[in-house]
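Appendix B, example 12.
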Amino acid sequence: MTNGTKSDPWELTTPPGSSKYSMYRDPEGDPPALVCVVGSTTLKYHLSAVDDLHAWLVAQGDWVAFGAADENKPAADGTVEAWGRSTTNPVGGWYGLRKGYRGRFAMYLPPLLEALGHAEVTHDARNNKMRAL
């Protein structure tokens, strides 16, 4: 397992296995961020997303659908994506930090939680889900 730094990022693959991307922590960012690089696109999420999502999954106690959606599309209720946008989550709204690129929280965070040993993730072509370990 890598260190999750800019010089040694986590190399991940989306659950269906269709896209590779990297993530790393930027604790010096304002605010501290989890940086996700997908091709030439950079997305940023609150650094607390990993611990917060894990805690939420533990509280759910079962499998939760991803519900991944772009920022301009609604997220289905009860999904990881909906929680990542909810005013009731620990950051009080979007975990995504870059306007226009705040969605897809549920596409890119689950593989990281799986790699870190915090969650189990399904790897189907569609409709993936996860649960806390």
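Residues 10-132 form one domain. The chain has a mean pLDDT of 96.
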